[in-house]
Write a structure and sequence with these properties.
This protein is of the alpha/beta class and 242 residues long. Strands 1-2-3-4-5-6-7 form a 7-stranded parallel beta sheet. Helix 6 links the parallel strand 4 and strand 5. Helix 1 packs parallel to helix 2, helix 1 runs parallel beside helix 9 and helix 5 packs across helix 6.
Length: 242
């Protein structure tokens, strides 16, 4: 579970404990969870749950690399995923995205040399088609061959791409799948009816590189709906993996 799901309530230690009781074996962190690294580590240890992945901003790694890596070491993180960066909002051509990908790859090399894995987490923007006919995510992956991809399946779909086709084509780069409720779904908040048919992605031929499955509840109208969503996801995942 991506801990951003609780950002409205900021009850991260409680949320981690509840998730562990529901059967989750791991959570994914983000910026708010390493403002006080020791408290986050204590919450993980108390619940007996891991944080193998987190979202970390590229600027932190560029400006204070040792701090970023130190956070990962203290939390037991194995893979950093970069979740986008504001300065790319105005980038509209292949050349700009190619240069950014190379910058991304250079930071990734340092991360990998430090013994950690490293990749990119997409949003819907990276599904835009550029002048050479490729989507931005394709330019990123093609121009930075050393980075992994945490594919946010819902954003891929909302961006107009075919998630099964795209993740299949880049299956050697997809090391994590990320699912969240579909914003445009009419079926109401907090239920599996708002998720894509995620069991289609679990075929062995498709997921040989996948190390983590991450879910996220972004709407989060109440704590109760967040916890109900989390439990339904956990219970359903158990049936899919039988």
């Amino acid at each position: 579970m991506q801990l951003f799901s609780a950002h409205k309530f900021k009850n991260y230690a409680e949320f981690i404990a509840v998730l562990a009781k529901m059967g989750y074996d791991a959570v994914e962190g983000y910026g708010a969870n390493f403002e006080d690294v020791k408290s986050t580590r204590a919450a993980l240890d108390k619940a007996g749950i891991r944080m193998p992945t987190l979202h970390m901003g590229l600027p932190l790694l560029e400006e204070d690399f040792d701090k970023g890596v130190g956070i990962c070491r203290e939390l037991g993180v194995e893979t950093i995923y970069i979740p986008g960066i504001a300065e790319t909002d105005k980038m509209t051509d292949v050349a700009a995205w190619t240069a950014f990908a190379q910058r991304l790859g250079e930071v990734g090399k340092r991360v990998q040399d430090a013994g950690l894995n490293y990749g990119w987490h997409n949003h819907w923007d990276e599904m835009k088609v550029l002048e050479d006919g490729r989507r931005i995510i394709e330019v990123l992956l093609d121009s930075a061959p050393n980075i992994e991809w945490q594919s946010d399946i819902t954003w891929v779909a909302e961006g107009g791409a075919d998630p099964l086709e795209l993740t299949g084509r880049y299956s050697n780069r997809v090391t994590a799948l990320h699912f969240r409720e579909l914003a445009q779904s009419p079926t109401g908040p907090g239920a599996l009816g708002r998720l894509l048919a995620w069991d289609a992605y679990f075929a062995p031929a498709r997921n040989s590189k996948i190390k983590t499955i991450v879910v996220e509840h972004e709407a989060q109208p109440t704590v109760e709906s967040l916890y109900a969503f989390s439990k339904e996801i956990a219970d359903t995942y158990k049936t899919l993996k039988k």
